Amino acid sequence: MKLTIQVNEGPYQHQSADSAYFFARAALEKGHEIYRIFFYHDGVNNGTRLTTPPQDDRNVVERWSELAQEHDIDMVLCVAAAQRRGIVDDGEAERNGKDATNIAPGFRISGLGQLIEGGVQSDRLVVFGD
Amino acid sequence: MAEETKKFMYINRKAPYGTIYAWEALEVVLIGAAFEQDVSVTFMDDGVYQLMKGQDTSGIGMKNFSPTYAALGDFEITKIYVEKESLEERGLTLDDLQHLVWEDEDEDWAEKDSIRLVSRSELGDVLADQDVLFNF
């Protein structure tokens, strides 16, 4: 089955980010395809490489990056949500005159249309959030 | 895009202010309207407050985005479900909500009500009939 996953909550504050990650891993192990993972609301905070959790805690962001690399998954941060929350890639830094970037490997920033398209193209849209 | 049309339902469950869910959900609905799917929107639980008339946000430093709901008809979003029990539990009636309408091109642009008041069990049937559920 082809899946799009939507993550609506930030890491560490909320279990949604963890649940979505474990769901994605389990789905892949069962042979399902992940068409896209779309991060919205505070979910965009899953995509900052500046995250520095304590050594004895899981690293939510690195976990996503590794998943994307291993399985070549399209992971998208909503541009409007990312701009509000200060998640920046090279293009956004240039467009908005910011002096730094913080997007983590494996993520890209794009529009809400990517979420809608995920709903159109996939057999199931699975939403993680409050 | 020559894809089949799917039934898209956007479910709004949160109060309009206090968290950003309602506002960012509205942004998804507006973007989604460009994709020519069969779109419906639901307001339930505290989400019914999003449609309240006469919202005044001047005291909280937030933009009042409630006028945007009145524009949904212009985006060809004509099916807006409001859950009856959610209104009753909060001491509200339809009169407390904005009067949302759309213009029917096939009937000489006659103005029609967009809001469909449905019971919890009727809403369950509506949701079961959808292809894609966006939950906010």
Write the layout of secondary structure elements.
The complex is a heterodimer of chains A (130) and B (136).
Chain A: E1 2-7, H1 16-29, E2 33-39, H2 60-71, E3 75-78, H3 79-85, H4 90-96, E4 107-110, H5 113-121, E5 124-128
Parallel strand pairs in A: 1-2, 1-5, 2-3, 3-4
Helix pairs in contact in A: 1-2
Chain B: E1 7-12, H1 21-32, E2 38-43, E3 80-83, H2 84-89, E4 101-104, E5 110-113, E6 115-118, H3 120-128, E7 132-135
Parallel strand pairs in B: 1-2, 1-7, 2-3, 3-6
Antiparallel strand pairs in B: 4-5
Account of the 3D structure:
Chain A is an alpha/beta fold. Chain A has one domain: Hypothetical Protein Ychn, Chain: A (3-Layer(aba) Sandwich), CATH 3.40.1260.10. In chain A, 38% of the residues lie in helices and 20% in strands. Chain A has five helices and five strands, in the order E-H-E-H-E-H-H-E-H-E. Chain A has a five-stranded parallel beta sheet with strand order 4-3-2-1-5, with helices on both faces. In chain A, helix 1 packs parallel to helix 2. The longest helix of chain A has 14 residues. Chain A is globular and about 40 Å long. The two termini of chain A are 25 Å apart. The model of chain A has no long low-confidence stretch (mean pLDDT 97). Chain B is of the alpha/beta class and 136 residues long. Chain B has one domain: DsrEFH-like (Hypothetical Protein Ychn, Chain: A). Helices cover 20% and strands 24% of the residues of chain B. Chain B has a five-stranded parallel beta sheet. In chain B, strands 4-5 form a two-stranded antiparallel sheet. The two termini of chain B are 27 Å apart. The model of chain B has no long low-confidence stretch (mean pLDDT 95). At the A-B interface, helix 5 of A face helix 1 and strand 7 of B.
